[in-house]
Amino acid sequence: MNSVRHLAVIMDGNGRWAEQRGLPRWQGHEMGVRAVRRLSAAACQREIPIVTVFAFSSENWRRPEAEVRILFSLLERYLRDEMEDLVRKDIRISAVGRRDRLPDAVQEVLMAAEETTQNCKRLHLRIAMDYGSRHEIVEAVRALACDVLHRKLRPEDITEDYFARSLSAGVRADPDLIIRTAGEQRLSNFLLWQAAYSELYFCRKMWPDFDESDLDEVLADFCSRTRKFGGLAGGRAR
Q1: Taking a C-beta distance cutoff of 8 angstroms, is the pair 92, 40 a contact?
Q2: Is the pTM of this model over 0.85?
């Protein structure tokens, strides 16, 4: 039976959820934060060790300034309010993506959360912020090119595994399963290298409405799939 070691989620539909209810978009994002709490608890109960959530893409800077400000305010509040609870629940927090463009207050609380929870083992919750997979890949290529230029690395030493370790989103296991909510069916520049053999699941529910029963439905579907990794059924050949 397939097991999920790494679950990734594109949390789509917060703004539309609010608009459908005649609410300001920020309330959809606030409800989206609650859905992250539910997902974290459900992942712990189902013994999923790694969860990566797409919180803010590099393209999201194009949104109205007020909405971007509210998004970062909600993230800052979540990290501050949840810090003690995360430690108690044995949940480690880390960030994926650029940090230089994040507000100072967000950078500060993020560093504090990472340091405070670094020894937690039950769940590794990775938050992708100001993240874009193309930028991540280009940065890795640039760094490797510099190492080759300065004779710190030979071109023939650059294998797929070596390259994967050079990525900012590097983690032991690539995502087994990527969920996208709100009905859209694309990856939107999320974990493009790491998703090479990920199973994809597109859910019509908006992210604020996604709950444990939806996760169980997705996991049941995942378990029913045959993962061949380019080989024959039952194998992991690529």
Answers
A1: no
A2: yes
Q: Which helix (H) or strand (E) holds 51?
A: strand 50-57
Q: Which two tokens stand for residue 5?
A: 């070691």
Print burial letters for 176-195: b (CB count within 10 Å at least 16), e (below 16).
bbbbbbbeeeebebbbebbb
CB–CB of 185/201 below 8 Å? no
- The mean per-residue pLDDT over the stretch 156-178 comes to 88
Half-sphere exposure of 30 (CA within 13 A, CB side): 9
Alpha-carbon distance 67 to 79, whole Å? 19
Rounded CA separation 11/51 (Å)? 12
SS (H, E, C) 197-225: CCEEEECCCCHHHCCHHHHHHHHHHHHHC
Strands (E) in the chain, as ranges, are: 6-10, 50-57, 91-96, 123-131, 177-180, 199-202
Q: How many degrees, rounded to 5, is the angle at CA 167 between CA 49 and CA 201?
A: 50
Structure tokens at 227: 């993962």
Residues 6-28 have a mean pLDDT of 97
Q: Report d(CA 12, CA 16) in Å as an integer.
A: 9
Report residue 93 as tokens. Answer: 């927090």
Q: Which CATH code is given to the segment(s) 6-132+174-224?
A: 3.40.1180.10
Section 22-39 average pLDDT: 96
Question: Mind telling me the catalytic residues?
Answer: 12, 60
The whole-number pLDDT of residue 231 equals 72
φ/ψ (deg, to 5) at 125: -95, 110
Nearest to 60 by CA among 71, 76, 74, 49: 71
Distance separating alpha carbons of residues 6 and 96, to the nearest angstrom: 15
